[in-house]
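go over my protein:
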Amino acid sequence: MVIRLFQALLLAVGVIWAWFFSNGHFDETQIPGFLIALAISWWLTPEIRARALRLNLVDKPDEERRIHKVPVPRLGGVAIYISVMLTVTVLVALTGRFPKDARAGEGGLAGIALGGTLIFVLGLVDDLESLPAKLKLLVQVLAGCAAYSLGVRIKSIPMPAHLDFDLGFIHLHGGTPIELGAFSLPLTVLWLVGISNAVNLIDGMDGLAAGVSAISALTIWTVALGPNINRPYAALTAAVLSGALLGFLRWNFNPARIFLGDSGAYLTGFILGAVSITGVIKGAATATLIVPTFLLVILILFFPIIDTSWAIIRRVAKGKSIFTPDAGHIHHRLLQAGLSQKKVAYLLYGLTAVLGLVAAYFVNQQEYFLKLGGSVLLMAVFFAEVLNRRHQKRSLPPQEKEAGA
C-alpha cells in the first residue's frame, strides 16, 4: 500500500508540475517527464511480469552463458515502451501543442517514435519467437532509415576550434565541422543499429543494461540541457527514458524479477543512439568544444561501445560469426574474477557515471554544469543504494528480519 501511494504521488507531482509550472512550454517539462515515466514504469513492470508468468513467457537458463538459475520473464521492454511513449503523449497534451520542430529534427521526436516503435516490435517478436540474425539486422536498418527520414541525422561532425592540421589527404581546420554529405545516411544508420545492439549485448546480467543506460540517459539529459547546448527536446527524451529505466530497475536489479528482453534492450539502445545525435552531436555544433564531438558520445556510451567492439574482435579472431553469443563479455570476466553481480553492476555504473561527467565537463566547461552532473550522479547512486538495501532485507532469514524489526 505504501509503495502504491508513493507511485501515485510521483505521478501526481509530475503531472501537476507539467501543468502548472511549465507555463505551456514543452521545453520546460524534463523533470515532470522524468517523474511521470518513473511512476508509470515502477507501477507497470510488476503487472507485466505477472502476466508473462501466467503465459509462461520466460527466459529459461538453458545455456552455459546464462547467469540466472530460474526462469525469469523477459518482457520488460513493454513497460519501457509504454512508459516512454505515454509520458511524451501526456506532456504534449498538457502543454497543448506538439513542438513545431519535432518533424524538422531539432529533437527528433517523430523519428524516435517511429524508429523506436519498429525496433521495439522487432524485439518483442524476437522475445516471443526467436528470429534469424539477418532478418533482425534488416529491420534494424529500416528503423534507422525511418528515424533518419524524420530528422535524426548526423549531417556533420563538429570539431574543436584549436584542432587544425593537414595530413595531405585529410584537411581539418579548427572550428570547421566535417560535412558528411552522402555518408550521412549510412553513418547515422550504423550508429543507431550499433548502439541498439550494443545495449542488447550488455544485457546479460541483472540490472546491468538498465542501470548503465539510465546513467547514460541522465548524462545526455544533463548535456543537452546545459547552457551551451540547449536542446530541450532531446533533453526531454533522455529524461523520460532515464525515469522509465530507473522505475524498471526497481524490479530488474539483482536478483532480477524481470528482464529487459530484446524489446527493451533494442528500444533503449535506439533511443540512446538517437538522443546522442540530436542532443549531443547537433547541440555541440553551436558550443565551444575542447574535444571532438565523437569523443563525447563515446565517453557517454563507453561501456556498451567497448564491450561490443571487443566482442566483434574476439569472435572474428576465433572464426565465428559476430552474431554468435558467448560468455566473454566484460561482465562475464568480472564475475569469473570472483565479483558478485551487485559489485559488478556498481563498478560499471561508477565507470559510466564518471566518464559521463567528464563528457559533460568537456562540453560546458562551467562549474555550474559540473555541479548539476554531480547531483544527477548522487541521485543515481542513492537510488541504487535503496535497491540494494531492499534486496538485502528481502534475503534475510525470517528470524533476522524479526530481530531487526
